Structure prediction request, 340 residues.
Amino acid sequence: MIAFEDWALFLVQMETFRYYGGNLVVVYVECALKKLNELMKVYEKDGLIKIRKAYKGSSNPNIPYDPDAQTEYANQMTNSHMCLYEFRESAEFISFTDWDDVLVGPNFGKTPTHFAEMFRQVSVLNPFAASYSISRYPFINEKAFRPKSYQFSLELLFNQLHYSTKIEPPKVVVRPQLVAGVWIHNLIYAESDKYYEMKVNSTTAALLHLKNIIIDEEETEVTLNKLMFSENGSHLIDGKVLQQNMVKMFEKHNFTFDLSAFSHSQIFHKLISKCYSSIERSARDNSLIFCPTHKACIYPDQNVTVIKVKTSFKHPKIIAGSIWHERKDVSFVESHKGCL
Prediction:
């Protein structure tokens, strides 16, 4: 999470994950809205997530460049492997997805099969498959939720989702003990040449690529393309059950979920999207001269209260002609200057 603010998307992820019997979501946070961080702590208290401090490179003034600007998509690869190596001995399966990719199971949830059982069935039939390629489908919320006039509800959301059968680039679920290296889109290295990646049928598992969940009160909403998003998703998952589970969990931990206290503006998403649009154009015409990362752009002041990672490093050493940087301490600190 380089600049996470979409609390509604977080809730969709958590309650869908619970719905399918998921065990643990590991959240690597570099920076997030303070209110969202409070929400995450409730789920951590409930045992559904673990909050981890994301990797952030050294800011040593003797380095003539920003190390975080030299990595693809904000240390995505580093954080993915931190997860892989920490949990590879204890986890049976690990899913590597973005926050707007929601993993669902057989028949998309009317009679939900737990994730673990679902992938165990696949692994029994394919004992040498180390990685499962999961198809992604674009899903768009027909009417975005607003702070006052149309408030967020998981039940309403799953009654107004529309989707296209046009498949987007896949993401992966891996059997971590068989995997040495991953990217979120495909297997990089297996532990042996006998292991491979296989495509999973979308009737077994699929990813819902969600868009247009929340919007500010005065913003103009993008019109739904009925030709592209022709299928109604109301039959996929019982949003009423998700809503009930969420409310029950909040009551269990005496947490007051006040929708008016959560921002709908998504300022970070808008700024990063504008930055990435420029990067994508450069990639298409082969003029890209830097790593595709949010650090490639300059942002205006945000004046938003956030929780972010603060990292200190030991004094650098020169070892075999290379400069060795080692982290000394990592902590979360509050900032009123936003994430970017």
About this structure: The chain has one domain: 7-21+64-296. Helices lie at 7-19, 34-45, 76-87, 115-125, 154-157, 239-252, 267-284. Residues 7-21+64-296 form one domain.
